[in-house]
């Protein structure tokens, strides 16, 4: 199976590990000449919390998720890294339930591989809060590389 498109699904917690995520994706995409899609899904509540900081006047229902994603950490830093490496990339945003929207995004861009980050959580935390990464891994339409950073604050 050829790898033509790699989806890097990120969220705001990934800002602390953006360089490592970029390196992981570049190890896959650069030698294969694959395109990278930097995907950031966010909930309406998350958008409403940050839309003033990002300079958007529109309410969530009127916003272009791609524009929001392009300004939301860690996307600009990742875009710079891929630009410097000469790797083709695009930015995709989605608004809604994060796990489902990331899986939908992978289908939409016809991803051949996904890279997702995760946090260490206890089984009790997973049972109560759920795990977006686990949902993505279980529903993904392609193989997933899971990047676990034990240093990320929970």
UniProtKB/TrEMBL annotation:
Domain UspA intervals: 6-146
Superkingdom, natural source: Archaea
Q: Which residues form a coiled coil?
A: none
**Gene3D superfamilies from the UniProt entry:** HUPs
CDD domains per record:
USP-like (cd00293)
Among InterPro entries, the record links this protein to:
Rossmann-like_a/b/a_fold, Universal_stress_UspA, UspA
* Record family assignment: Belongs to the universal stress protein A family.
UniProt name for this protein: Universal stress protein
- Specify the taxonomic lineage: Archaea, Methanobacteriati, Methanobacteriota, Stenosarchaea group, Halobacteria
